[in-house]
């Protein structure tokens, strides 16, 4: 059995958009560039040809990777979830118990995690510490700078 990847609908859509762009724009463009480079003669010393072939190889690899991820995606819509327990798809507001700094994270699949955008992978240390907890709970997370303690202020599914 193939492994499924949990993913939000938003993350799934982003992968589909990238795949469509590669298939409908990037792939035809690189095929045209290869054809043009071939017209310039000797392929062994043709840098344009080699660059276009390298780009084609990258595009085909990425298309295969995206098709695989899309086929194994388990799309979960956070807006259809509810409750006060942290789980996949939850948007969690926490406060650092040492600095009183508030942070909000959405727990998403590994393929769509982006800390700068407030999206953390369900497999990350902080997400693993938060999953299963509820508002008011304190969690301790091992970080490269030492243990950090957070209090869960809010759990939402948006």
Summarize the helices and strands and which ones pair or pack:
Blueprint: E1 5-8, H1 9-38, H2 47-71, E2 73-76, E3 91-96, E4 102-108, E5 119-121, H3 125-130, E6 138-143, E7 146-156
Parallel strand pairs: 1-2, 4-5
Antiparallel strand pairs: 3-4, 3-7, 6-7
Task: Based on the model shown, name its key terms.
158 residues; alpha/beta; five-stranded mixed β-sheet; two-stranded parallel ribbon; 3 helices; 7 strands; 39% helix; elongated
Structure description:
The chain is about 40% helix and about 25% strand. It is α/β, with parallel strands linked by helices and about 160 residues long. The strands form 2 sheets. A 5-stranded mixed sheet has the order 5-4-3-7-6. A two-stranded parallel sheet has the order 1-2.
Q: What would the average pLDDT be, to the nearest integer?
A: 92
What is the H/E string? EHHEEEEHEE
| Rg, alpha carbons | 22 Å
What is the terminal separation in angstroms?
31 Å
Q: How would you sum up the global shape?
A: elongated
| Sheet with the most strands, sense and barrel status | 5 strands, mixed
Number of helices: 3
**Structural class by helix and strand composition:** alpha/beta
- Report the uncertain regions: none
Q: How do the strands of the widest beta sheet line up side by side?
A: 5-4-3-7-6
Counted beta strands: 7
The share of residues in helices is 25-40%
Q: Tell me the fraction of residues in β-strands, as a range.
A: 25-35%
